[in-house]
Amino acid sequence: MTLLTSSETNCLTEVLFENALQQARELDRYHRQHRELIGPLHGVPVSLKDQFDIASVDTTFGYVGRSFQPAAKDATVTKILKDLGAVILTKTNVPQTILWGETENPIWGLTTLPHKPAFTAGGSSGGEAALLALDGALCGWGTDIGGSIRGPSHFNGLFGLKPTSSRISHWGVPGPHEGQEHVPSSVGPMSKRLTSLVAVTRAVLNAQGWLSDPKVVPIPWREGLYLEVQTRRLKIGLILDDGIVKPHPPVERAVKEAAALLRNAGHEVIIWDTSEHMGFIEIQDQFYRADGGEDIRRDISAGGEPMIPHVEALVESSKAISVYEYWQLNKAKMLAQQAYNEKWTKSGVDVLLSPVAGHTALPHRCFRYTGYTKIWNFLDYTAMSFPFTTVSEDLDSEDISRTSGTDTSALDEVRNPLDTYNQGLWDLASMKGLPVGVQIIGRRFDEEKVLGVAKVLEKEIEKQKQV
Fold this sequence. Notes:
It is an enzyme of class 3 (hydrolase). The protein is an alpha/beta fold and 467 residues long.
């Protein structure tokens, strides 16, 4: 099945079946000898984005120049997964630099959306998402520095968790801009099933990753917090629109319907103000370009490869800043984080509910805006994608969305070029049936709480199906 997924979507890079069979034999041998499982993930088939080091296997993250340079040892997360009994089947495709919301590079080529080859599977964990959507593995692992777990999960109908960056180890997971910590990347799981996502998160957090990586906070899985939020009335902040790019009709509908389910179950839902988000994004974008594109240029030059269009645009728009200017950016970021923390505390909300993106999956090379996801990387908050519905011809026609009982005048409003561009992408005929997710956001280190609220929402969906 794993190979079949790649024949349809071109989602795989390194295929590790021989290693996987050897792992499986060793697990069987252990079970025969000890009559017990080696760990909570005994025999679970998993896959890794082509950014995670596996001993004796290349980690290219889309660069030609990093080919044929096998990793010396496993990444911390790779070792933890093996120690827990997981069987690693394959590594999956990424965009060149891994800094984009689509998956394409000069080594492995273009990854496509399952069942819709003219559309993107997303990025940068797009190969991972395509594989999991077609049941090529039970669980996969990606990284997220601007939405790279949540975006592909939204496009492919998956659950995907972006933890706070220091909750799960990033050691042995190389990437562009190594050494920068102003916008940290997070390591997290992806799966078709919430129960699987919770199980692997619990297992990895209980594996004491802080003993191998000093940057990991010593916080094991907190079962009490996960269960507690499932037993009380919640207060939820609702983001229908970030004020920058208005979501397409099915995205807006998904968030409204999810909010209605929670409200009808007795939870309090309030409108969340996003007026600071544009300013935060402007600070964040300066961080992405702080080295003037030097890190990317060096990797590109090492392989003598062409830049994909987005990478070229990123590099050409980058201007190196001074150390003093960098300090001022960090100061601005710290002030922003402090202000948002105070706002959250004052509001008393447990989580936020938001779009994952302003659209569903798109035709190739059309992706532009990541504001709905990357804002939470800037704040280093916990966030996850939750698959909620699909694009419906009956429910998502333009006329219905404009008369849905809320203020939709912004559909006709010209806000900015990104919003105009996004509105022009909406095409019900070609997008009918595509998955639509919602995003659940918590504060720093709120992984158990966010997953607990996801469980609450899943239960309400199941209740509705039984009516």
